[in-house]
Design brief:
This protein is of the alpha/beta class. The protein has ten helices and 13 strands. A hairpin with a 2-residue loop joins strand 2 and strand 3.
Length: about 280
């Protein structure tokens, strides 16, 4: 029987962030700040708000700044101790003190499915969440997206993908699903295609960077052949589960920013800045 409570969140964070060059030549894209916090910290905070306390991060070469961020900085803390700036460290200090972090490296960049499979050593045989830090989500009036999905998992006990409606002409940027509505905002997935041409897209519902995955996904990924772009796609592995009726799609409540693009990053910065005012 699947473990009752999800406690771990996997963060694939090994990508190069080429759309943000030259900024990402030496700085991990996950550490680019929206206002005063890096993208990855927003994702960790969302996981914490959903009740998760173990963060499993798949990194790569040149990503040591991630490990340093989620660690104590005794010299800096000593410098600002007792000053007006001490409170600026309270959020990250609370995260470091109350969460467990583990890391492994993705030696080759062979797709999101491969990155998730690389994280098996950190996850083990239990269901888990996945957050892609590029997709920054916010919900003013309700629970965070991952919290909504955890509650759905408690009911359905299967893999879950977060989806949103997109212009059909953008379908070649996303994994796209089709399925049958079983509740308001919830579909049982029947088909999913990775980055289809608009004419081939099964719907206008695109998967965004929030997943709940059951542990059998690892064995499926091991048998998944490279697909679109020569990469191992999580969409292809999820389709295997979907054919057995074991994937649902959730049209989440909230706002999502594609911070993997410059336009989305600027939009997110302006949005969060307006909330601070």
């Amino acid at each position: 029987m699947l473990k009752q409570k999800i406690t771990k969140c996997l963060f694939p964070a090994a990508g190069y962030g080429t759309r943000f060059l030259p900024a990402t030549k030496a700085i991990p894209k996950e550490m680019l700040p929206v206002l005063t916090k890096p993208l990855l910290q927003y994702g960790v905070e969302e996981a914490i708000s959903a009740g998760l306390d173990t963060m499993a991060i798949v990194t790569g070469r040149g990503k040591r700044a991630i490990e340093d961020h989620f660690d104590r900085s005794y010299e800096l803390e000593h410098q600002i101790d007792g000053t007006s700036k001490e409170n600026l460290m309270s959020e990250i200090r609370g995260i470091v003190n109350n969460c467990k972090f583990s890391y492994t490296r993705q030696v080759e960049m062979k797709g999101l499915g491969h990155a998730i499979l690389t994280g098996e050593t950190l996850i083990g045989d239990e269901p888990f969440a996945v957050i892609l830090a590029d997709d920054l989500c916010d919900n003013d009036s309700d629970e965070a997206v991952l919290t909504q999905m955890i509650k759905l998992y408690d009911k359905y006990r299967c893999s879950i993908v977060a989806v949103e409606e997109i212009p059909r002409e953008d379908s070649s940027k996303y994994g796209v699903i089709a399925g049958d509505v079983i509740e308001d905002r919830i579909l049982r997935v029947a088909d999913m295609v990775e980055k289809p041409d608009p004419k081939d897209a099964p719907s206008n519902l695109a998967i965004i960077g929030r997943y709940i995955l059951t542990p059998d996904i690892f064995e499926i990924l091991k048998d998944t052949k490279a697909g679109k772009g020569g990469e191992i796609q999580i969409t292809d592995a999820l389709l295997t589960q979907a054919k057995a009726g074991n994937v649902i799609a959730y049209k989440f409540k909230g706002k999502r920013f594609d911070c993997g693009s410059v336009d989305g990053f600027v939009e997110a910065t302006n949005y969060f800045y307006s909330k601070e005012k």
